[in-house]
């Protein structure tokens, strides 16, 4: 990237409304994602490696009360997705919520939401690639973890450089693996809970209520676990980013929105209910990997191998979407002159290749630094960017309050299947719930430092956006 002065010159004269999706040379992002791609992209965004492994930490934090944490988060996700769907059908754009923030509050809001969203993805790609590398290293010990991780990043980068259709196809088939295994896990688990699985006695309510009660860590444990649930659900918004490259954005968004409720309910609450019913919530095995612990409890042969394959598929899917979402957001920022213009370049295949290469290169740099010189500071940075999920969703709700009123005031009725229920009351309720949860995170000692640092990052990026906006509005000397 250029120096500060050069960047300021590039950003100086951006407009309030988003520009066209192409570049000065006339190249355009490809609109070739099909409805089936969009459906699987929305599922893949909602169901990642966080469900298979990360949910174990949430169970340790809240006990069986993790179901409350995930139910609360699922309810928020459904409404937030409804907000995004309503705005996306009217204004389908690769910049998605960054564009909506810009339209609702001005350039500074689009700048802040876009950069805050983008900055976490290279770190996330690094973490996922290392985790995937460890899985493959277990299969092929001769290959070092760092080499496997680099190769994984190279694969998903190449897929995204090819075409958006290639990204959609890869996501479609990889997500099918995750969906099939989760459905099988829930089905077998329910049979075991009912006492119908040979060799596995029915657990009754002992694990749910008999080990310190349903809320053994109190409500504070639920709030802390909600933060982990928020991070697990982050990615659901990718489908609205992809709307700018869909053949029929409105139809695809309506379909995804209609089905997200049962998807998040079945995949998250269904699978976690099986775990907390069958196993003690405070066992070390559940904390390490709840799915693996449950499969071991059920005595399923080859369960660890199957789970590792599914975990690998989940991580591959997550990395694929991380490259896609981060590059499109960086492209949109550059297009709207909130980032250096070189990131708005588009290849003949319709891919923002400079944004893809820059994001992937940064992920590789993070990977090399973490493998050669691992530090606690890196983990802290990942946690901080994880807390910015709250910031992204708060920004979406705030933008929806403004744009929703504008649309209804102008007589534009939201499309069927996308309108937020009970507007503006429900939007206000979600906004206040998100603000309240974040405030509690600041109060609680276990989450205070990361929450405050994430807030400081948000304030700093917002101030930078305001500075750029005022430079744009200042009369020439």
TrEMBL record:
Keywords: Amino-acid transport, Membrane, Transmembrane, Transmembrane helix, Transport. It is a multi-pass membrane protein. The chain crosses the membrane at residues 38-59, 65-85, 97-118, 138-161, 173-197, 217-239, 260-281, 301-319, 351-372, 384-404, 425-445, 451-468. Residues 37-448 form the Amino acid permease/ SLC12A domain. InterPro entries: AA-permease/SLC12A_dom, Amino_acid_permease_CS. GO terms for cellular component: membrane. Pfam families: AA_permease. One of its GO terms (biological process) is amino acid transport. It is found in: Membrane. Belongs to the amino acid-polyamine-organocation (APC) superfamily. Amino acid transporter (AAT) (TC 2.A.3.1) family. This is Amino acid permease/ SLC12A domain-containing protein. It comes from Kitasatospora cheerisanensis KCTC 2395.
